[in-house]
């Protein structure tokens, strides 16, 4: 019989020992919570497609801040739901736009909350696409000017970091240039670099009212068959001055999180998107899985693949799990 001198199970014999030899350590400091701000007053409404996530009007944002603080989450990613939309998405760069109002409110109530904004047009355009249309095609270079304006307006309102999610070519350079020209040299850009045309965004589009009125996003978001192209997108964003790279969605794309971590030396974020969250919620509701354990396991796997930062609707619950010592 083979003499068993090598026994990997030896290091699994007690909880104490397993914790000692863990390879992945995670901290609530690396969690970002996406938050939806709706134009209007007195809006505090649970989002049908995203259970336990809410639309907050600016006057109700104190509720979001209370929840975040209770769980020890202090980084948020803001999305806006404007009342009016138009072909150019002009609400996106309005200094009194919904995200700009929201940023000011959060900074007034909680100056230590780190505020990141999603820079995109799809929630603001009547057609629901992420840029300026030329016929049915999103015009890249016309859109760049608008994206730069949007980012600048967010930063002027007090945003700490901007995160362009539109997938136009050259947007990181365009945003870096306008921020630098206006003296915001220290505002970082987290680029949605490897962002795929994904059906996992379905619940978000309900939540943000941003489904395209015609066609789909495949002429700007990436084809999910590709991984070398994802690294090319990352390399371009690094060259253009991105400070953080992002892979999105997360769980089905962990190969890219891993590759990005191997290839680039700046922090890597991944975004566990609305469909990932909604699927876990639905399966748990049907009694098929243990929501808490699946949430914990999925998040740890994202970090294990190489994520330094995880953007997730479960940020508050994960922060608790880390504090309790269930993971991390
Ligand atoms: C805006 C944007 C989207 C998401 C983040 N920013 C939607 C999309 O690209 O269609 C998706 C987030 C999620 O599903 O949780 N472009």
Q: What do these coordinates show?
A:
This protein is 38% helix and 18% strand. The protein is an alpha/beta fold and 328 residues long. It has a single domain, classed as TIM Barrel (Alpha-Beta Barrel), CATH 3.20.20. Strands 1, 2, 3, 4, 5, 8, 9, 10, 11 and 12 form a ten-stranded mixed sheet that branches. Helix 8 links the parallel strand 10 and strand 11. Helix 2 packs parallel to helix 11, helix 3 packs parallel to helix 4 and helix 4 packs across helix 5. The model has no long low-confidence stretch (mean pLDDT 97). The structure holds ligand PBG. The site of ligand PBG has 12 residues, from helix 6.
Give a topology summary.
Elements (H helix, E strand, L loop, with lengths): L14 H6 L10 E8 L5 E4 L2 E7 L4 H11 L3 E7 L16 H12 L4 E6 L13 E2 L2 E2 L1 H18 L3 E4 L6 H11 L8 E6 L6 H7 L19 H13 L3 E5 L5 H10 L4 E5 L1 H12 L5 H15 L3 E4 L2 H10 L4
Parallel strand pairs: 1-3, 1-4, 1-12, 4-5, 5-8, 9-10, 10-11, 11-12
Antiparallel strand pairs: 2-3, 6-7
Helix pairs in contact: 2-11, 3-4, 4-5
Bound molecules: ligand PBG.
């Amino acid at each position: 019989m083979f003499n068993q001198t090598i026994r990997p199970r030896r290091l699994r014999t007690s909880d104490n020992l397993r914790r000692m030899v863990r390879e992945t350590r995670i901290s609530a400091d690396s969690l970002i919570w996406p938050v939806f701000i709706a134009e209007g007053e007195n809006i505090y409404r649970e989002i049908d497609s995203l259970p336990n996530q809410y639309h907050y009007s600016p006057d109700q944002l104190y509720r979001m801040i209370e929840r975040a603080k209770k769980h020890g989450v202090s980084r948020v990613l803001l999305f806006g739901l404007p009342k009016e939309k138009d072909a150019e998405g002009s609400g996106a760069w309005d200094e009194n736009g919904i995200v700009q109002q929201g940023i000011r409110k959060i900074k007034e109530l909680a100056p230590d909350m780190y505020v990141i904004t999603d820079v995109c047009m799809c929630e603001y355009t009547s057609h629901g696409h992420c840029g300026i249309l030329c016929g049915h095609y999103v015009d890249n270079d016309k859109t760049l000017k608008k994206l730069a304006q949007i980012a600048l307006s967010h930063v002027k309102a007090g945003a700490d970091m901007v995160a362009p999610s539109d997938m136009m070519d050259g947007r990181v350079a365009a945003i870096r240039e306008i921020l630098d020209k206006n003296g915001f040299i220290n505002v970082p850009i987290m680029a949605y670099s490897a962002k795929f045309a994904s059906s996992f965004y379905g619940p978000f589009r309900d939540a943000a009212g941003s489904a395209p009125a015609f066609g789909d996003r495949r002429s700007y978001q990436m084809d999910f068959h590709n991984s070398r192209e994802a690294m090319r997108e990352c390399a371009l964003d690094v060259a253009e001055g991105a400070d953080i790279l992002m892979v999105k969605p997360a769980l089905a794309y962990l190969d890219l999180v891993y590759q990005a971590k191997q290839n680039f030396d700046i922090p890597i974020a991944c975004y566990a998107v609305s469909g990932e969250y909604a699927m876990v919620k639905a399966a748990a509701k049907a009694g098929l899985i243990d929501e808490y354990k699946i949430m914990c396991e999925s998040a740890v796997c994202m970090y294990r693949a190489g994520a330094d930062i995880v953007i997730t609707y479960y940020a508050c619950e994960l922060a608790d799990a880390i504090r309790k010592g269930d993971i991390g």
